[in-house]
């Protein structure tokens, strides 16, 4: 039997292996439980990413980028310069109108719904990372708080969940469509990881806590004094909800 390679594992996750090779990989994973767990994490990550970005991938290709449209455009005779300029202006105006109409039809997520989607996407990317899930370690929690406060232009703290059995691993800054956000990661003695995302909201004030789901992950998102929070993990919502309430209580105390 040929050695099992990284390409074989990725093809196994993507369901691209022939039946004979698939059986060999399955047999190999049975004898190597660590790799088997890694493959399951890869599958879960793929499911989470598809859940987070599936709506974007499902959007239709703009008509002006359709292959048949591009081929036809190449076949047309070139217009004189002044006519080409006029056509470009009309196309731009039409594109702007179409883009504005797109905004009214697609109803992009806003508020804590957008925050929940961003938190789920970042959980899918960083929670499975075994090499460098955070930029600053828990020992630098004061530096984390200063870093986040400076970049978010808001004074923020680092919630302590140790009394609930979760230790702080550290954090990092991440990009979102609504600006920078602070990401904190926690885990328990089983290695179960949670991610909390926080960023300023477009609207000041508070928003009630609501549950959200993406693939195998669940979460709770809310806003408090214009700052949004979302806690995400693969844990039971019965576990996550008290933790989210604890974070909301402690951050209210510290603001």
From TrEMBL:
Ordered alphabetically, the record's keywords are: Membrane, Transmembrane, Transmembrane helix
The membrane spanning regions, by residue number, are 84-101
Q: What is this protein called?
A: Anti-sigma factor
Species of provenance = Methylorubrum extorquens (strain ATCC 14718 / DSM 1338 / JCM 2805 / NCIMB 9133 / AM1) (Methylobacterium extorquens)
């Amino acid at each position: 039997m040929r050695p099992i390679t990284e390409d074989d594992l990725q093809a196994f996750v993507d369901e691209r292996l022939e039946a004979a090779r698939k059986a060999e990989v399955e047999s190999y994973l049975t004898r190597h439980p660590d790799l088997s767990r890694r493959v399951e994490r890869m599958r879960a990550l793929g499911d989470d990413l598809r859940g987070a970005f599936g709506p974007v991938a499902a959007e239709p290709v703009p008509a002006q980028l359709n292959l048949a449209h591009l081929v036809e455009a190449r076949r047309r005779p070139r217009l004189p310069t002044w006519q080409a300029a006029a056509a470009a202006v009309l196309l731009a105006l039409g594109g702007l109108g179409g883009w504005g109409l797109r905004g009214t039809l697609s109803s992009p997520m806003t508020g804590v719904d957008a925050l929940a989607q961003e938190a789920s996407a970042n959980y899918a990317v960083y929670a499975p990372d075994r090499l460098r899930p955070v930029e600053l370690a828990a020992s630098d929690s004061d530096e984390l708080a200063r870093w986040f406060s400076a970049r978010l232009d808001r004074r923020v703290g680092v919630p302590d969940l140790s009394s609930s059995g979760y230790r702080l691993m550290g954090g990092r800054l991440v990009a979102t469509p609504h600006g920078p956000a602070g990401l904190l990661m926690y885990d328990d003695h089983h290695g179960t990881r949670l991610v909390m995302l926080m960023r300023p909201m477009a609207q000041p004030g508070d928003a009630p806590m609501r549950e959200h789901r993406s693939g195998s992950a669940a979460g709770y998102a809310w806003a408090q004094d214009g700052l949004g929070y979302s806690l995400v993990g693969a844990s039971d919502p019965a576990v996550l909800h008290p933790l989210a309430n604890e974070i909301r209580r402690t951050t209210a105390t510290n603001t």
